[in-house]
Each structure stands twice: as structure tokens, then as C-alpha cells.
Amino acid sequence: MAKFDRHQIQQLLAEAIGDTELFVVGLTVSDSVLPKITVTLDGPTGLGIDEIATITRRLNRAMEATYGEEAAYSLEVTSPGADQPLTDPRQYARHVGRSLHLKLQDGTEKTGPLVNVLPEGLEITEVVKVKTKKTTLPAVVIPFGDIKEAKVVISFK
């Protein structure tokens, strides 16, 4: 049974992605009887089913060439779900104008529309609720290092 090396898979994945604008958000390799390799990709405009299929085929071919055709594993190439946190600064740009919920390293939380993505962090206009009244505060820049978790607020208006 083949032992899958995470670093080698990362290299194969980088080659499979090639010069596309896609980037890796997550890579897990389970250590079970039938190892499961889960790749989470994203891009500046999201990720389409055709792109997922192409990367899956490329990575499968590279895995077979590296580990042999008899290597048994399960491969899942996916995009982050709408409820998944944003983990890479490159993920924010397409969410400008949408509301984010941020959990900060100091334990505080902020929610409000993303105004801009800067090299050093996010510019948001925080919306504060006091009883039933909402107040929008002036835009502030929150450094990426201060963000523990960021999620897009899903609204069904």
C-alpha cells in the first residue's frame, strides 16, 4: 500500500493547477485503509465544475505516475462552501460589497460590509445593533493578522 506524502501531493497539485489563477485553500490526506485526499481550491472569481474536473484529471494522472496505477486512494477536489471561513487573503476580493462576520484574535467580533481589500488587511464598515436599531460605523482597516476567522454573511433578501 502506498504511503502518500503530503508535500509531494502539494507539488503535484501545484503542477496540476499550472498557470491558472486558482490557488489551494486546503489539502488533507487521511491516514485510513483507503486514504482520502481532499483538495479545496478557490480563485478570483470562484471555481467552476469544469475547472474542478480538469484539476481532478490532471492530479489523478500525476498521482498514478508518482505512486503507480495500483495505488488505492479517494480523491476529492472541491471549492469552499458558502458557509466555510475565508482563509486566504486572495479570497476576499470577490466579496467586496458583501457583509462579513469577523472573529478577531482579541475575542471581539465585527460584522459589516467589506469595503475594500488592502495589502495589509480588510476595510469594513461595521454595523452595530443596539436593541432594534442598527448603526453603521465609519470604515476601519482590520489587519489580516488580527483576524481569527472570517465568514461571508449569507442573506436571503
Automatic annotation (TrEMBL):
Family, per entry: Belongs to the RimP family.
Sequence ranges assigned to domain Ribosome maturation factor RimP N-terminal in this UniProt record: 34-83
Keywords: Cytoplasm, Ribosome biogenesis
GO cellular component: cytosol
Main location: cytoplasm
Record-linked PANTHER family: RIBOSOME MATURATION FACTOR RIMP (PTHR33867:SF1)
Pfam families: DUF150_C, RimP_N
Tagged with keyword Cytoplasm: yes
Name by which UniProt lists this protein: Ribosome maturation factor RimP
HAMAP family on file: RimP (MF_01077)
Domain called Ribosome maturation factor RimP C-terminal: residue spans: 86-156
BP terms from Gene Ontology: ribosomal small subunit assembly; translation
First and last residue of the signal peptide: none
Cell compartments where the protein resides: Cytoplasm
Function, in words: Required for maturation of 30S ribosomal subunits.
Organism placement in taxonomy: Bacteria, Pseudomonadati, Bacteroidota, Cytophagia, Cytophagales
Gene name tied to this protein: rimP
Keyword Metal-binding: no
